[in-house]
Amino acid sequence: MLRTVNSPVLRLSRPFHIPRVSSLPTRKLATTLRRLANRAVVYSSNGEPSSVLSTISYPDLPPPPPDGVNVEFLLSPINPADRNLVQGVYPVKKQTETLGHSSGVYVGGNEGLAIVKSVGEEAQQQFGLKEGDWVVMGKQQAGTWSSERCVGAQDVIKVPKDIGEVHGATITVNPPTAYNMLRDFVNLKEGDWVLQNGANSAVGEAVIQIAAHRGLRTINFVRNRTDIDGLKQHLQSLGGTHVFTYDDLSDKSTINHIKSLIGGSDPKLLLNCVSGKDTTSMLRLLGADATLVSYGAMSKQPLSVPTSYFIFKNLKTCGFWQSRWYNEHSREEREALMNAIVDIIRAGKLREPEHETVTIPGSTSDEEATQLVRETMRKVEDGAGRKVLLRVENVE
Amino acid sequence: MLRTVNSPVLRLSRPFHIPRVSSLPTRKLATTLRRLANRAVVYSSNGEPSSVLSTISYPDLPPPPPDGVNVEFLLSPINPADRNLVQGVYPVKKQTETLGHSSGVYVGGNEGLAIVKSVGEEAQQQFGLKEGDWVVMGKQQAGTWSSERCVGAQDVIKVPKDIGEVHGATITVNPPTAYNMLRDFVNLKEGDWVLQNGANSAVGEAVIQIAAHRGLRTINFVRNRTDIDGLKQHLQSLGGTHVFTYDDLSDKSTINHIKSLIGGSDPKLLLNCVSGKDTTSMLRLLGADATLVSYGAMSKQPLSVPTSYFIFKNLKTCGFWQSRWYNEHSREEREALMNAIVDIIRAGKLREPEHETVTIPGSTSDEEATQLVRETMRKVEDGAGRKVLLRVENVE
C-alpha cells in the first residue's frame, strides 16, 4: 500500500491512536503517543550483531527537503560486510544518527531496495523521481535495515520493477563487484580464461554467470566438502567451465591436467576472496603479465606472493571494493553500471541469490522485534547458508 | 690503443708468430697457431661461478656485417644477476655460442662499456656509429665479460666519454632501475615521500640520489649493523632524508616518530628489494592508493600483504625488471633513458658506485686467467663488498 508520509490524514491520526494503546504500561504508552510509525535496526556500540543490535521505533518522516526523497525499504540483505561493520572491523566510518527519541545510534544495512514515497521538488525535476519508483542506494551505508528513511535524491538509482524484489535488493554489491572486476583490470576477450577462488561465494557465483555471459571461461576453486560433486554441478550449471578444490593444487598431476585444459592460453586474471597458501598455489596457473584482484580474505591469512612473480612474470596485485567504486564514480556512471546489471538480469543470465526473507512484523513490539533480529543474526553467524533479506515493516 | 681487427697487418702476423711459441708444448702451440687474440669468461653448465666459469681464447673477429659493429669491452661489472644466471636461477634463456674452437659455451656478463673498433656500412649510416665511440649494451646478455665481440648496431647505445669509464660500465642496470621506478608507477612531485628498503644496495643508493635530484624525500631502511651510524651518515650524504633500521619497525614509538616526520603527506611509493616480514611492517607507513614496486627479494622470503591493504587502502603491488623494460621499449626510448642518466651524472648528482677493478691480463694463459676469474668470484660470493668491474684484456 502506497502512503504519503506526514500526510494530513496521518498527522490527524495521532490523537486517535491513544485509546488503542491505553491499556499498555506507561513506558510503552509514552513512546506510542509519538505516533511511532517507523522502525529501524540499530546499534550504539560495536559488538556481535546478535548481541548489540536492537530495533527502535521512530515517528513518521516530515516531507523530504527539495533535493530529497522519502523511501520505504522493501527488502534489505544482511551482507557479511554489514556484520563486520557492526563488529567494528570494517573500515567505514559511520555517523551516529538521531531517529525520534533515539540519538547516537547507527542504523544497520548498506544495500536495499526501496520504493519512493514522496519526492522533493528538485529531486523530481532534476532526477525524474516520482512516487512509486523503485530505487536502490548509490550511496553507501544508507541504513537500509529500516522501514522509511529520507535520502538524497542524487544518492538513489532507479531500477525497473520487472527484475523483481530479490534482484532489486541485491543488485548494488555483489553483481557489480563481479562485473567490474571482470571489466576494469584486464582486457578480456571471448574465450579468455579467468581463475577464481571462493567460487561459491555470492560474488563468485556472479563472476561465473557474468563471465559465461561474456563468453569467458572460468576455472573455479572451492573448499573440498562432503557434497563436492553437488557443488561442482551447481557451479557448472551456472556456467562455470571447470571446478576444482584447493586440495587439487597440491597434486602435480592435477596441476598439469588444469594446464592442459587451459591449453597455453594462460589466464591473465585471478579473482581472490580467500588469500592464504591456497591462493599462493593458484599463482602457478597464471600467465605472464597477469593481475590478481583481491576482494576478500576468507582464510583470514595474508596474501603471500614469491617476489619473483612480480619481477619476472610481471604479476600485479591489487584490490577491489565496490564501496570505493561508488565513491569514485559519478551518478551517471553508477546508473550505467546498474543498467548493465539490469540488462544481464533481463537476459536471464544472472540468477537470484539463494535467500530467505525474514520479516520484522509491524505488529511486534520493539522488544519482540529486537529478539527476532538477534535470533536471525545468530543464524547468520552460524553460517546457516542462505542470504537473509530483511523486511522491516512499518509499525502498526 | 685502437686497432682494426682482422687488418692485413694482423693477418700477416700469423706466420711470424710461430717461432715465438715454438718452444711451448704441442697443445699450446696448436691453439696459438690460430692467432687467439681475444678472451672471454664462459661457462657450459650452470653452477657456482667460482666453480664453473673459465676463460677461453678465440681468434680475431672478422669484419662486422653491414648492420654490426665490432667492439672491445673496456670494463664490465659482475652484477648479482650475472651470478644468478650462471647458477641457473635467473629466468633468462641464453643461447650457447661458438667462439673459435669453443662451441656450446655461454659468455658471461650483461652490462659493460665498450669502444667501437670497426663499423658495418649500415651501422655507420643508420646509427651514426664510428670507430672510437663509446657504447653500452641496449640488448640484454651481450656477453660483456670478454675482450672483443661483434654486436648488432641497433643493440648498442652511444654514451659520451666525459662520464668516465666506471659510470659508463655501470649505467645500464642500476641507475635506470632507480630512475624508472621513481617515474613509471606514481606521479611524484617535489617534496613527496618515497619509502625504500635495502637502501644501501646499488639501486637503493641510486634511488636516494635520483630522488634527491628530483626534490623527493626518502625514508630509507637498512639492516641494523655494527657501524649503523656510519652507514646512516653515508646514505644521508648521498641525499637520503631519513635512515632507519628494520628493527625500528617493531617499536611503536619509532613508527609514530616516522609518521610525525612524514607529517600527514603519506608516501605513495614503496620500493622493495627485500620482501619478508620487514617489508610487511613497512606497509603501515604507506598512505592510501600507494604502490609497492619489488625489484629484489634479499630476504629470500615472499612478499606477504594483509588483504585489507588491497581492498580498503587500494594498495597495488607490482614488479620492476630493467631487462623487461629494455625488451619492451624502442631504441629511441633506450637512448632517451641513457641520456637522462647521463644528464644526472654530468650534473654531479650521481656518484660512481664503490668498486674495484679486476684485470684479466692479456699476458696470462687461459689456465691462469681462469684461476683469477674463479678467485674473483669467490671474493664476490663471500660478499666482500665493493662491486667488481672486470677488464678482460686482449690476449698478448
Write the layout of secondary structure elements.
Two copies of one chain form a homodimer.
Chain A: H1 8-21, H2 26-32, E1 38-43, H3 49-52, E2 54-58, E3 68-77, H4 80-87, E4 97-99, E5 102-107, E6 113-119, H5 121-127, E7 134-137, E8 148-152, E9 156-158, H6 164-169, H7 174-184, E10 193-196, H8 202-213, E11 217-222, H9 228-238, E12 242-245, H10 252-262, E13 269-272, H11 276-282, E14 291-294, E15 303-305, H12 307-312, E16 316-319, H13 322-328, H14 331-346, E17 355-360, H15 366-381, E18 387-392
Parallel strand pairs in A: 10-11, 10-13, 11-12, 13-14, 14-16, 17-18
Antiparallel strand pairs in A: 1-2, 1-5, 3-6, 3-8, 3-18, 4-5, 6-7, 7-9
Helix pairs in contact in A: 7-8
What can be said about this structure in brief?
In chain A, 36% of the residues lie in helices and 23% in strands. The first copy, chain A, has helices at residues 8-21, 26-32, 49-52, 80-87, 121-127, 164-169, 174-184, 202-213, 228-238, 252-262, 276-282, 307-312, 322-328, 331-346, 366-381, and strands at residues 38-43, 54-58, 68-77, 97-99, 102-107, 113-119, 134-137, 148-152, 156-158, 193-196, 217-222, 242-245, 269-272, 291-294, 303-305, 316-319, 355-360, 387-392. In chain A, the strands form three sheets. In chain A, strands 3, 6, 7, 8, 9, 17 and 18 form a seven-stranded mixed beta sheet that branches.
